[in-house]
Amino acid sequence: MSATPELLPYKRIREDLFRPLSGISRGYLLTTSIAFIVGAAGLAAWGYQLRRGMGVTGLQRPVFWGFYIVDFVFWIGISHAGTLISAILRLTDAAWRKPVTRAAEAITVFALMIGGMFPIIHLGRAWLFYWLVPYPNSRLLWPNFRSPLLWDLTAILTYMTGSVIYLYLPLIPDLAQLAEHNTTWRRRFYRAFSLGWTGSDREWHALERAMKLMACIILAVAVSVHTVVAWDFSMALAPMWHSTIFGPYFVAGAIFSGIAALIVVMATLRKVLHLEMYLTRHHFDRLAKLLLLMSLLWLYFTMAENLTVWYGNEPKEMAVFGARTRAHYARFFWTMVVLNFAIPFVLLGIRRLRTIATATIASACILAGMWLERFVIVVPTLANPRMPSAVSLYTPTWVEVAITSATFAAMVMLYLVFAKLVPIIAVWEFKPHPQEED
Amino acid sequence: MYLVGEFREQRALESAIRTLRASGIQPADLDLFSEEPVELPRGVLDRTSRMSLVSVLGAIGFGAAATGFVWWSQHDYRLVTGGMPLFSFWATGVITYEMTMLGAIVATFGWFLWESGLVRRRDPSAPVPEVDPGSICLRVRCGADDVAKASETMRRAGATAVARRGEP
Q1: Is B31 helix (H, G, I), strand (E, B) or coil?
Q2: What is the CATH code for B2-35+131-165?
Q3: CATH code that applies to domain A59-134+143-394
Q4: How do residues A141-160 score in pLDDT, each as one tens digit?
Q5: CB A142 to CB B76 under 8 A?
Q6: Are residues A221 and B95, on separate chains, in Cβ contact within 8 Å?
Q7: What is the ipTM of this complex?
Q8: Strongest mean pLDDT among A86-100, A315-329, B76-90, B126-140
Q9: In the sheet that B2-7 helps form, which strands lie side by side, from edge to edge?
Q10: Where are the domains of chain A?
């Protein structure tokens, strides 16, 4: 299969990319069912926590941030896969981006939906979430806008709005196409969301201009969102958190885990939806090189962060440093280094080993490694506070594990539903020019 | 009255547009329909846009409104700050920044809907041609006297079919 997708007849492209939308295979049903069951178990665990209170979690003094905040930071990081990568590729006009962008943008929206849930889950009394919203309440109170919690709220709200619009805009022409080629409820659905798109040059012109502007805006927002998440930590005077490097460290880590998530999703879609012609080795090779670069950048930041602390030898910081690298949390720290650097460096750095399969394996390792990185940042600092008598350990309970597992299931389920509703590759971006088609 | 010409080649289309414009037809009376964006050389059928300006205005508006609201709310219910200022841009700059960006996003999307015509009432008599894959349709609005001339222009330029639509 050496043909370039752009040179295929348009009819073939449309058939290939619209085909996955019809029919439901046994594998699809099975995966959706498993994801649904795991998701439902997580919801039940959350219900149990709402009924019994936060005491059912492993969170206790002084470790008040555990799995939930780790999950929050992890998923917000994953959300950088899409919009940020897609925006960079769109602005640089990288031709190979075409089959990648929509899959990436969808990751962003779903990861943000999942990540955005965690501050609410972590609140305990989730039904009081609306107290964060500025409204003229009966006690004449306003939210404290100086709090990083409010910064998070506004940053995620902005990123979510931007990402949904950024995903939706290039979907409109495809939805209009789908409205023509479908019957029953799907036709009504596609027609409603295509907003009466006719394909006029005014519409195309407005769409392209809007996409370029949105790409610029979303880049600035994406960087700020993960910086704000980093500031949740670094604004606290806690050992190994109060660091100026945290903003860029978190942004780099987010892009790193985002690319890894994108590769895993692309490899899965390629196999399941038979898109070998469109998601080629070429795409994986480019993304794998980018991933390797980010792995090195991640190592640089990790070294810079830890070396500074070690050289400074400040007792309170060294207590955390010791817990991370030599004591209770050392197994997580060193596993993280192996998963985020050693394995990807070998699999992606040696050209002969760099294949779609190894890129996917390296990416899966990175996803696990980046989750561990969030854990290693959040927990040891809280478990080793400045008050020596308060030193403690954190062990998550089944409730936290169930909710965490449910988020991964939710991601799978959302993606499966999305892939059945819209083509996972933008069809109109692949169309050959009239004179090229034959 | 409308004429719809179908083209298979972009060069033929460009030639038709140039000739039609030279004969006095305004760009506002010309519309292209295609299943993919058509990139024409500058000067053939330029569409001006105020989207960037609207985006900046939206950003300034949202940012200023958010900053004003934060300032007002912090003074409306005064927290004990131990001598620190009630409103500090250092501490609320993130809110201003994010709301500025939200303003740009909302304004860009809103203006896209307006400028593309998707949320505007359309002329019901204006035909929307069904475009075959790989072809481009040119819709021309012209007076009854100009129909024959415009039709001939499109045919000469290389239109594979020309049809009258929207006749009274």
Answers
A1: strand
A2: 3.30.70.260
A3: 1.20.1630.10
A4: 888 888 888 898 899 999 99
A5: yes
A6: no
A7: 0.92
A8: A315-329
A9: B30-33, B136-141, B2-7, B161-165
A10: 59-134+143-394
